[in-house]
Amino acid sequence: MSRKNYVTYQIKFEPHLAVNPQNIPKETRKNILSIKLSEKNEDWESVLHYSLLVADLFYNTDDYQRSAYFYEKAIKASKILNDYTQLSYSYSKCASALHSAPSENKLDIPREYFAIGLVYLELGELEGDKNYYQYSVENFLNCKSSLEKLKDTGKSTKKLYAETLLNLGIIWNIHLGDHKKAGKAFEASHKISVEIGDKENLRLICENFGFYYFTNKDYKNALKCYKDNLKMCQEMKLHLEKAQCHCDIVLVKDLNLKEHIDKSKILMEETTQAIEEYKLKKELENQLKVVVQKKDLVNEFKILKKLNKSLISSSSSSSSS
Known about the structure:
It is built from 12 helices and no strands. With 321 residues, the chain is mostly helical. The two termini are 31 Å apart.
């Protein structure tokens, strides 16, 4: 069961500022118009081409917020085209632009850390390099720390904080194998999401908590989470996610059944062994009565030796189980 293929990360690059045409060269304005037309026609090769032209131009003129906006468009087009070379380039440049962008709103710095964390997260999946996941964790932790310093109890701040915790949990659980940290992050994110009524984040937490329990072979709780996730997907009319929920539920049920069957087989084997040991003990006890009556000391000693060996074997079997 691979979560990598369909876990929904909170990919919301910010700042996404509207492009003001003032002080933009005529040729660049034409390229921006070409991007809009290409997006409308779903011509993703043209979207990629013009987005990189515009993004690079803004980047080279130190207009980092606008460059990040167009690098994101290039990222989207690269994914659709499966152009991993341009995807890697766009992610790297987007991270650099976000690092360099000036901050005006109090949430700008946490949001930039958040966006860079996502960039490294996607690079990790693209390149299969764990170092990128570590960089991603560092940026999400920086985002978390920045939000805590604000001491702001507003809904936007809490929402970003919950999403940050969710993504940390996903990385720790799936990519870095730190399930203890993942569980705590999911719990904290869930508590905040319930408080602010963030249904989408609650659904994602439920989905990933299900996988958390699945990886820890706690199929009972995994099944509960997946069923809750299915209910939310139905309420939110998320048809693709709903289909995935059904797959998850079937898989967990099958594994849970297999685990019960395996346990039953072991129990049957232990029961059969215990019955055989009991039969042997009773047979030896009957033989002992006979030789005691006959005062056959030699055979009495032999039977007592066998009986003692049988009792030791039975005792060790019960203590090991």
